[in-house]
Amino acid sequence: MSETGATAILKEEVDIVIPTIRNLEFLEKWRAFFEPYHLIIVQDGDPSKGIKVPEGFDYELYNRNDINRILGSKSHCISFKDSACRCFGFLLSKKKYIFTIDDDCFVAKDPSGKEINALEQHLKNLLTPSTPFFFNTLYDPFREGTDFVRGYPFSLREGVPTAASHGLWLNIPDYDAPTQLVKPLERNTRYVDAVMTIPKGTLFPMCGMNLAFNRELIGPVMYFGLMGDGQPIGRYDDMWAGWCMKVISDHLGFGVKTGLPYVWHSKASNPFVNLKKEYKGIYWQEELIPFFQSVSLPKECTTAQKCYVELSKQVKAKLGKVDEYFNKLADNMVTWIEAWEELNPSVAPKSDALPNGSAK
Amino acid sequence: MSETGATAILKEEVDIVIPTIRNLEFLEKWRAFFEPYHLIIVQDGDPSKGIKVPEGFDYELYNRNDINRILGSKSHCISFKDSACRCFGFLLSKKKYIFTIDDDCFVAKDPSGKEINALEQHLKNLLTPSTPFFFNTLYDPFREGTDFVRGYPFSLREGVPTAASHGLWLNIPDYDAPTQLVKPLERNTRYVDAVMTIPKGTLFPMCGMNLAFNRELIGPVMYFGLMGDGQPIGRYDDMWAGWCMKVISDHLGFGVKTGLPYVWHSKASNPFVNLKKEYKGIYWQEELIPFFQSVSLPKECTTAQKCYVELSKQVKAKLGKVDEYFNKLADNMVTWIEAWEELNPSVAPKSDALPNGSAK
What we know:
Two copies of one chain form a homodimer.
Chain A: H1 3-10, E1 14-19, H2 25-34, E2 38-42, E3 58-62, H3 64-71, H4 87-92, E4 97-101, E5 105-107, H5 118-127, E6 162-171, H6 177-182, E7 195-197, E8 210-214, H7 215-218, H8 237-252, E9 255-265, H9 271-294, H10 304-319, H11 324-343
Parallel strand pairs in A: 1-2, 1-4, 2-3, 6-9
Antiparallel strand pairs in A: 4-8, 5-9, 6-8, 7-9
Helix pairs in contact in A: 1-5, 8-10, 10-11
């Protein structure tokens, strides 16, 4: 499949979801790569403040008034004044693939100086299988010029469907506030020319800045939680979504890749503001990770939705004692799924619609 | 720690183990990097055929006669006419770190054209901790210019001791015979500038061509099995060692890294010969991998030796039914440990020497 071929085929199957464009240069800089696609922009701030999308882009724009109007009594599950609101775009999309990117991320260049088409690389990652059951030392075996190495079991070479593709960042690395404070000048200049599957059973810190996923496979679990205004925590929206997504992908037999593509992350957010948002997350996380490492989903959970509802129950049972916040979060996870099923009724498998007692 | 600093400090703590030098150019090509170190050369072929080591190298050379003389009735545990004999060098070494390399691997160049000091990179990998419990998306957080990313739990940032460093190959990739036959012209030209920890619970295909390890931590499990003359299988020596090493490192809380350094693998071995050696391994492996994925070692196994003896029992119990070969292999795993303890008596922890009933 040629590069242009892959993207041409998929043009109608992709939405680009962008939370809150503050930087008007952002879309201009991405014009060559984004103009052929449909954009869903979710503004997290004051709904009376409009934004001006440059000519030529095909887009939908939503603000808080739209979220309230569309979700009604369920609108509380979407974070207010926080980029976590991006998941409202995931909910509204009707496409198979989502690419989401932050407005301070620009086109990076590869070591040869060529501009990187991030979306195209994400689609390549999503369109080729993942290999979560065994590590391939030459990285993604489905990339051109490489393969499975000696000793890789043949029965595992078919791979599994890829649920998500996590891209990286040149220039400003995605550090937490303490690391930002300690290393204010550190820049990521290392271009690692690799894509790899994160093994089954292994958690990772999923960053929402440069992320793509298969909405049909795992859209319903890509809820970015409750962050921002009125919440005790921030900057854990993507992490929360990533941990939920990874344990559910592991359970459902999907793979998650990380590595290429890179974007150019232009500016570090304020570490003092970040520290205030993060500090509860930093210590709560010490209990969240053992929780997610030990999550076990029953085999009756055969869809992303069922897994997510089951996970919400376990969150309430096990994390409610860490802080009352997790009870509220668990309730909103359920609200999110209700909203998902309302707006995406066809996604629920047909067997669920059978009346009780029907033959399987 | 400067590059030269690290290697200078460690000069007395490293042995380079080379199985069977057929190519006289090999040592000349590595002279600048290997001359400061002690070499242990283990010849696998006809003991009456000598080899000529060029002037200036500090080396010990062993052939089959030496193996028989030194190990006596235990010498059957060392493979005959196969590069698996390299583990005899691991047994005899008294150093903390081992670097082992094949004679068809030469000095590779990084993308800037600089010759890669493979041993130096291996030592850097071994001297910095591993992070097997959580995946860091910017790869080895202990490398210069990088760190743990946002969302990496702080309690896991100390890492664990690194047991092994698995290096890669430019030019000829390490493919099995079927892949060699299907892709005879494929060359690895991709220099991936990364080192990473293979997560806990994940197996990988360990190649012995370019490998280093901490002999104090996991030397006793680096047994390369029974291959070559008189055995039904070949080319699974390093794989076997790798699977044993990984499950035992996971149990003991050590880490395993893969990635840099690269060597230049000059020539592909004959795929027809390889197919003959490999074919039993290719289907046996389908039972070996589930076995290794389910190995569980009791907490009483607190040393590499104890783990390895326990593993040999499980091999006999679970794999003996796959083929009689695995019963023989299990017996030789025990012989190997006996040989190890004979030649390395001080490695056994002191508490083992206490008579029964003594206070702990």
